[in-house]
Amino acid sequence: MAGLWVFPGGQTIKQNSVFILNGYAESQKIISGLTKKYPIYLKSRNKKIKLIVTEVHYGQFHLTQAVLKPETELEAGLSYTMHIDSLPKYERFNKYNKITQKYEPVTYTVISGKDVEKPQLLQKPKVLKKTLVFYGCGPSIHVVFSSPAKDASELIVRTTVKNIKSGKETTYYVEPEGDKLKIGHDMCAGAFDFDDSNRYEAEFSFMDASGNITTCTDERIKFTKPGKVSSYRDE
After folding, report:
1. Who has greater pLDDT, 117 or 96?
2. pTM of the prediction?
3. What pLDDT, on the 0 to 100 scale, is given for residue 228?
4. Cα dihedral: 113, 114, 120, 126 (round 10)
């Protein structure tokens, strides 16, 4: 019932990189207490750089995230490890290395130069499909959009979903899965939830690992929530 994970997920970053830290369930209080109860920083030997919280977003289903920016520019050629002080004993803050297939400290090696190029938006996002799967502990429900943006670094999408009936808006940075972007929630957590309303609209801004943003300037995309059961799994 806890978990912390960070964007970007790769091993290398530019000197002007930004970071996004997500907290699940009990770990949401870590996000809310960053820099106060839980100082967060990058460390490379005797060099220590404080991370500043620039945004906090609250998901609708057991997720909270913070956007973080280094207080000073990162030094090229150094490897920095991200630290959070005063974490509860149950918290494990690490990152999965796809190459070694092991969980390791959250460490990045800095490549010389700044990335100032905005992501390239190839076309307007569109709804591809809707999924609704009932598991033993609850449903997994998503509206799947295309994610037609390209960049030299990892991408994340600043997503705003509005419930047209209530007028409530929720914003959250969502990592695409290849060329697809899933809006909704899994069985245990997710950024967005759908209530009894059937009318929604979404807006997307594509951000790279250095904080360069390209916003889709067209009208918000209107959509309805998934309404038919795709399958049932007793898990």
Report:
1. 117
2. 0.93
3. 57
4. 120
